[in-house]
Amino acid sequence: MTAPTTADRGTAPVLEARGVHLGYDGRTVLSGLDLVIEAGTVTTLLGANGCGKSTLLKAFGRLLAPSAGTVLLDGEPIRRARSRAVARRLAILPQNPVAPAGTSVRDLVMRGRNPHQSWARPWTPQDDAVVERVLADTGLVEVADRAVTELSGGQRQRAWIALVLAQEAPTLLLDEPTTFLDLAHQLDVLRLVRRVNRVSGTTVVMVLHDLGLAARYSDRLVVIGDGGVLADGAPGDVLEPQLLHRAFGLRARVIPDPVTGTPLVLPEEDPDETPPGDDGPKPPTPTS
């Protein structure tokens, strides 16, 4: 595996981490990390639990300040920008968001328009149109007037994704956007994210756990581990057996997905474990 690189890929950088140190509870998880996110791409952060991928996403979203180093948004330090200006350029969906009691789905999605409001620009028909379009795109029209707390886990997650999309920011940060969703709805959400990227040129950075879905719906994979970037590149270049073992402790084969041709990870059986449904050697059948 070649060393990770942040070389220019021919597009303008939107987000950049320069020598960033990040941690929590007195523990450093990322040390001196450098990473560039290019405009118009879908980048997925991968890595084992606790490696720092969600921590990095929080730093990109200005939810966590680095103890050292700098995060840049459109070439300028993100900590110096006004909150409303950042919210117009960048939207973030964190893990496990909580809506105020009694908030309806429609009310929640409408809050995505807050960065566009001011005393000189009150709510407009354009805002209504954005909200209705996003509700339709996320399949929430029929539950739009129900309280968010009354929804199933999957519906709740789609409501939060709708809020982020209603913000119409040119950059989206999505921390595990497929949480609580069954496979069909995971695909719906990732297809929607890719469509927004392809149609609007929206830059997307997300954290996923499913390696196959990450490979299928991403332009670029960045694998985090050992306090920094272990690998960075196109899915076919990154998802290799040696890297999977180093990053996840996973022994696996990587084959082309028969549908898309993108890498498909097949975990290997542990030779020390009995296969599921096999109770071990069978005693010989007695003969008469």
What would the keywords be for this entry?
single chain, about 290 residues, 6-stranded mixed beta sheet, 12 strands
Distance linking N and C termini: 61 Å
| Structural class by helix and strand composition | alpha/beta
Number of strands: 12
Helix and strand run: EEEHEEHEHHHEHEHEEHHEE
* Helix content, binned percent: 25-40%
Number of helices in the DSSP assignment: 9
Low-confidence stretches are: 1-10
Q: Which radius of gyration do the C-alpha atoms yield? A: 22 Å
Largest sheet: 6 strands, mixed
Shape descriptor reads globular
Percent strand: 25-35%
Mean pLDDT: 88
Task: Give a structural overview.
This protein has 288 residues and is an alpha/beta fold. The chain is built from nine helices and twelve strands. It has helices spanning 53-60, 83-89, 105-110, 125-137, 153-166, 183-200, 211-217, 235-238, 241-248; strands spanning 13-24, 27-38, 42-46, 68-73, 76-77, 90-93, 171-175, 203-207, 220-225, 228-233, 252-256, 263-267. The strands form three sheets. Strands 6-7-8-3-9-10 form a six-stranded mixed β-sheet, sandwiched between helices. Strands 2-1-4-5 form a four-stranded antiparallel β-sheet, covered by helices on one side. Strand 9 (220-225) and strand 10 (228-233) form a beta hairpin. Helix 4 (125-137) packs antiparallel against helix 5. The radius of gyration is 22 Å and the shape is globular.
